[in-house]
Specification:
Elements (H helix, E strand, L loop, with lengths): L8 E2 L9 E3 L23 H4 L5 H8 L5 E3 L2 H10 L4 E3 L1 H7 L4 E6 L10 H13 L4 E6 L3 H13 L2 E7 H6 L1 H9 L3 E5 L5 H9 L7 H13 L4 E3 L6 H6 L1 H13 L6 E5 L4 H15 L6 E7 L4 H4 L1 E6 L8 E6 L21 H8 L4 E5 L1 H15 L5 H20 L4 E6 L7 H8 L10 H9 L9
Parallel strand pairs: 5-15, 6-7, 6-9, 7-8, 10-11, 10-15, 11-14
Antiparallel strand pairs: 1-4, 2-3, 4-5, 12-13
The chain binds pyridoxal-5'-phosphate.
Length: about 450
Amino acid sequence: MMSKEIPYKIYLEESEMPKQWYNVRADMKNKPAPLLNPATLQPMGYEDLRPVFCDELIKQELDDTTPYIDIPQEILDFYKMYRPSPLVRAYCLEKKLDTPAKIYYKFEGNNTSGSHKLNSAIAQAYYAKKQGLKGVTTETGAGQWGTALSMACAYLDLDCKVYMVKCSYEQKPFRREVMRTYGASVTPSPSMTTEIGRKILAEHPGTSGSLGCAISEAVEAATHQEGYRYVLGSVLNQVLLHQTVIGLETKTALDKYGIVPDMIIGCAGGGSNLGGLISPFMGEKLRGEHDYRFIAVEPASCPSFTRGKFAYDFCDTGMVCPLAKMYTLGSGFIPSPNHAGGLRYHGMSSILSQLYHDGLMEAVAVEQTEVFAAAEMFARVEGILPAPESSHAIRVAIDEALKCKETGEEKTIVFGLTGTGYFDMYAYEKFNNGEMSDYIPTDEDLKPGFDGLPKFPGCE
Ligand SMILES: *Cc1c(COP(=O)(O)O)cnc(C)c1O
């Protein structure tokens, strides 16, 4: 049968947008391991998590059985402001590569925050507002999550306090000012506004901060103020759930034209965009309806999947957060200073970790100069300036398309293009000047992180 001519962009009608998120845990035989209380080592239940997280979000976090969860109308209305996002046929990239492969990408950068993170930010802000809270606190590293959350909070008239890793606060003033433009208060972390911040500053005066430290401050700020809760932009089950809007739209768009992908590729920092993109397809694989290849792409300088351990670990450096079972490099792990491409978190979503552990998904690590070379080629032929994070997926999509050129196979490749890179021009500058280098940690480099993993009976 001749297939319909595939347009450059497959858009959906508003009426075709998903009205429910899909919870892939419902179809997993081996469920992701529960969060543990670091003091008692007991699984954290609803009541344990209430001081930190919003009530409805805790229910979503703990729900391993409900396959479809309704998206409230207010969130659907917000989604309509910047969704559905296009599924683009990368005709120009295919031509450039001279490959028989068919390449598609789902582009999530078409909103001011510039990434997929808005999909979960609006959901988390909505549930906080519905609970009658005054505001939310969070941390941000490079700033994409803080920006998305600021936009969502502005829309719902909710207070937003962002702890921004100090070196980013100083080096990325534009992101900081976007957040402030949307009404958020932005504090460089570590700061004197929290007990843990004061302690860290006393011990390490002049420190430029870290994500793990900013998390500890944001959690303290939420739990020590009436009417505030903490929210997080990745890693958690609830975030992955909200991000399934990406995969559900992708599936509907592909189905419209009878396209069946052979492989689905995404970059993995904490795993939320990749998990959201692959969930509906993974559901089919788990139910035995169809087989796909799923490929997680991570930086060789922060290789959680490919070289990490599957173990219970802390989510933050302050060790105040629950323990999660995941592929991890240890909460003390910090990528080498030359690392410029994002995706620097030490751990990984528990859901994706379990799927990977069960052999349902693959992972590859790529070096950053190769990533930026792919980003540049992509920008020149497809027009979009990709975020360095997204470019990890571009790299592997290109590599797979080049393999097809060798073998003559007409494989269909879908990858997630999570965002734009306008605020990453220092990294691009380094690459353009030929000053970017690769550093792959040695086993020796990784050892201290692993040695810092919590040890207790049954933790592995
Ligand atoms: C945050 C971010 C990522 C990585 O986060 P995940 O939770 O792994 O999806 C990837 N791309 C962009 C543009 C981001 O902002």
